Amino acid sequence: MCNSDQREMTKPLSLLIQTVIFSAITYILKVFEGGIVFSAEGMAGALLPCNYFVILYIVLYLISPFVNILIKSLDESHFTYFMRLCIFLFAVCPSAVDILTQITHKEWMGLSTVGMYGSQYGYSVVNFILMYLIGAYVRFKEYEFSKVSKLKLLTLLGCILVVLIIWGNINPLTAQEYCNPVVIFESVTIFLLFKRMHFGEIKWLNKVAEGTFTVFLLHLVFLEKFDIKKAVTGNWMWMILHILGVVIFIYFICWCIFLAYKCIMDGKTVRLLKGKILRMTVGRYKNSSSDNW
């Protein structure tokens, strides 16, 4: 998105609709299973798009054209300095405060550079914007990053994993935070590794990948049905087979649900309804340059 300033309202709207529909269906199924008792308050809550990733992604999606204006106004040296400053302020500093909190067993309210109540473990729009900036930096520095060999990336990834394992044994909570600079470094390294792999166009893989968002929305519903604790504390071979089996099963089920959802939403009646809703909204969120404002 860093190379485009056009934003269509259909995308955030479709994400919200899918989130609400699956949330409502999940609530109704739990009622039928006897897990919860139906109530008007519970149903009303299920009809709200309470999903941190969806909400924060939409926020980032809408403000990203203005972030692009900032990025494009910086030359290479200033952008590099800005990136380093953001990583220090919004990854290193909040993680340090979280470590201090864990060591002293005391909440240091107001010390974090992210918010009054700390880093929120990276579940914040600050971290989303930081990752967006890093993604833009990787794109603008694509030629330089392409010179790094796969062997160096694999070696670097191995070192990062060792650091995270050691960190996790000492302080597991801060080791797995999304704002942890080592975790961010790990994700960028993995991204660069996959970026160097060229599989060509695999049509069936692209089709399967369409169900990923549905997996994100529904995977916890199915994970509750498996005895994961028993699997991970048993034989290591059984654990690996269990993990692979669960992953494949959940992805397949969610993909089938996605196909059914897509067929329903692509229906003529639903398309007309969506069109009517869109005509009542802004329709298109566009900004071509800072001179227009």
Question: How would you portray this structure in words?
Answer:
By secondary structure, the chain is mainly α. It has 14 helices and two strands; from the N terminus they run βααααααααααααααβ. The protein has helices spanning 10-33, 40-46, 52-72, 76-104, 125-140, 142-146, 150-170, 172-175, 181-195, 203-209, 212-223, 228-232, 236-265, 268-280; strands at 6-8, 284-286. It has a two-stranded antiparallel ribbon. It is globular. The two termini are 20 Å apart.
The number of distinct helices, counting runs of at least 4 residues, comes to: 14
Apparent shape: globular
Biggest beta sheet summary: 2 strands, antiparallel
What helical percentage do the residues reach?
over 70%
* Arithmetic mean pLDDT: 87
What class would the helix/strand composition place it in?
A: mainly alpha
Alpha-carbon Rg, integer: 22 Å
- β-strand amount: under 5%
Low-confidence residue ranges? 285-293
Topology summary:
Blueprint (H helix, E strand, L loop, with lengths): L5 E3 L1 H24 L6 H7 L5 H21 L3 H29 L20 H16 L1 H5 L3 H21 L1 H4 L5 H15 L7 H7 L2 H12 L4 H5 L3 H30 L2 H13 L3 E3 L7
Antiparallel strand pairs: 1-2
Helix pairs in contact: 1-3, 1-11, 3-5, 4-5, 7-9, 11-13
Provide keyphrases for this structure.
single chain, about 70% helix, about 290 residues, mainly alpha, disordered C terminus, two-stranded antiparallel ribbon
